[in-house]
Design brief:
The chain has 466 residues and is an alpha/beta fold. Strands 1, 2, 3, 4, 5, 16, 17, 18 and 19 form a 9-stranded mixed β-sheet that branches. An 8-stranded parallel β-sheet has the order 6-9-10-11-12-13-14-15. The longest helix is centred in the middle third of the chain and has 18 residues. The protein is globular, with a radius of gyration of 21 Å. It starts with a strand and ends in a 19-residue tail after the last strand.
């Protein structure tokens, strides 16, 4: 039996804050006891971690990553090995990545391909969602089988005609199936048919720079698609999770639906909270670094996103980590913004940026843990195994220094990408030590993990409906 005790830290979960010692046995949380009490003094272990003056928090759960994802003739720059190592450096101990069904192929073929990419390569634990690109009778039957084996969420796209796009007929059928089998439909809500018209018109006018990527992907087209997805889910009697919400108009649609008592949930990402169209408009071709979909919005949208996180109209902050190097990948779109691979790096930055949001007064410490750890674990059927510090939970634990200062930079990050979206940004707070199932992956700012430690984690159905 291997035992570790973490002493003297402020343990923060979504529900509580308590100065407590944490006893870990065989990869799980065994007990907590208030620091300095006889109960805590009775904890004995081979390894003791001093967390005095630090936070002790659950490992982050990033419910939206794209490792090794094919897009626009290239692949996301992070492998499961490099991407999960970077996640650990940033205090994230579980990711849920997206397996992809290709049009004409089966869900099983897509899922098997992603298992092959990830197995034996991950530094932290992982699960899968399934991107459904081709809804037909066989696909619908396969959805039932995947739910039974722990792949309980299915992503559809109202964007990217000819690639991932599903029409309303396909979306409704998948939602009806999810209503029956307990699956959760995740929606990329943008009106891709209309966007393609605007892209074509912009290019015809000679508007080719990266900033036009944001201008053609209009906030109203995100709001319209969000509204349509909500109503289709309502007709199907299915819950809906809208990914990477970026526009205040889309937040309003979610808030309205939730006020009506619908099971509708929303996720946003750090890039929409901290970056804006100012970045897309950076001179030369620099704006290409910030091309992602949904796109960055003008700064005034940020207030609605922060408010949504405080009022729980938005429940989760994930990264949509999908990195492409500036040199050789983003550059594919020089002279044509529509050819810039869509996606940004961020799996290493999320926990730190959200701690900065605590420092800045946007959210509380417990809300930080709620939106980054507990709720994604509940939303995707992994709680309380993941997302909290409580007896019986996996010992995915981060010792976090809330006073350390750092400057974010591509020079020092561990993601396999040649730029940082937050280059030069000064923030307060830094990961010091990370345990994954009780094993040290980061030890006092040194990587002590290894590929293959991370294991596949089957998931139950959405627990956020309980």
């Amino acid at each position: 039996m291997s035992r570790t005790v973490i002493r003297g830290g402020l343990v923060i979960t979504a529900a509580d804050e308590i100065h407590a010692d944490v006893l870990i046995e065989d990869g799980r949380i065994a007990a907590l006891a208030a620091s300095g009490t006889p109960a805590a003094g009775a904890f004995t272990a081979e390894r003791t971690i001093d967390a005095t003056g630090k936070y002790v928090i659950p490992g982050g759960v990033d419910g939206h990553t794209h490792m090794e994802m094919p897009f626009g003739g290239t692949y996301a720059a992070d492998t499961f090995e490099t991407g999960t190592r970077a996640a650990a450096w940033g205090g994230t101990t579980t990711i849920v990545d997206f397996a992809i069904q290709t049009v004409g192929g089966s869900l099983r073929e897509g899922l098997d391909a992603w298992h092959a990419k990830a197995e034996g390569n991950c530094a932290i634990d992982y699960g899968f969602h399934m991107i459904v690109s081709d809804v037909n009778q066989e696909t619908l039957k396969e959805m039932d089988l995947l739910v039974e084996e722990g792949v309980t969420s299915f992503k559809q796209f109202m964007a990217y005609p000819g690639v991932f796009y599903s029409d309303d007929r396909q979306i409704l059928r998948a939602m009806q199936r999810a209503a029956d089998n307990g699956g959760l439909i995740m929606m990329h809500a943008e009106n891709g048919i209309a966007i393609d018209v605007l892209v074509e018109q912009a290019l015809a006018r000679g508007e080719t720079d990266p900033r036009y990527h944001g201008e053609v992907r209009k906030a109203l087209l995100e709001a319209e698609a969000t509204h349509r997805a909500i109503r289709l889910a309502q007709v199907a009697g299915a819950p809906l999770y809208v990914v990477h919400v970026s526009a205040q108009e889309a937040v309003a649609e979610l808030a309205r639906a939730r006020d009506q008592g619908l099971h509708v949930f929303g996720e946003t990402c750090p890039q929409y909270l901290f970056l804006s169209t100012d970045n897309l408009a950076e001179p030369g071709f620099e704006g290409a670094k910030y091309v992602c979909s949904t796109p960055l919005r003008p700064k005034e949208h940020q207030a609605a996103l922060w408010k949504g996180l405080r009022t729980n109209d938005l429940q989760v902050v994930s990264t949509d980590h999908c990195p492409f190097c500036f040199t050789g990948q983003k550059e594919l779109g020089r002279g044509d913004f529509s050819k810039i691979p869509n996606g940004m790096p961020g799996v290493e930055n999320r926990m730190d940026l959200l701690h900065q949001a605590v420092v800045d007064g946007h959210i509380s410490r417990r809300r930080w843990i709620e939106i980054a750890c507990a709720t994604p674990a509940r939303m995707f059927g992994m709680y309380p195994k993941k997302g909290t510090i409580a007896p019986g939970a996996d010992a995915d634990v981060v010792v976090y220094d809330p006073h350390a200062e750092q400057v974010m930079s591509a020079e020092t990050h561990h993601m396999n990408v040649d730029y940082s979206a937050y280059e030069g940004r000064r923030i307060t707070g830094r990961v010091e030590t990370v345990l994954s199932r009780g094993e040290p992956v980061i030890t006092e700012r040194e990587y002590t993990g290894h590929r293959g430690h991370g294991v596949y984690t089957p998931r139950s159905t959405c627990q956020y409906l309980d």
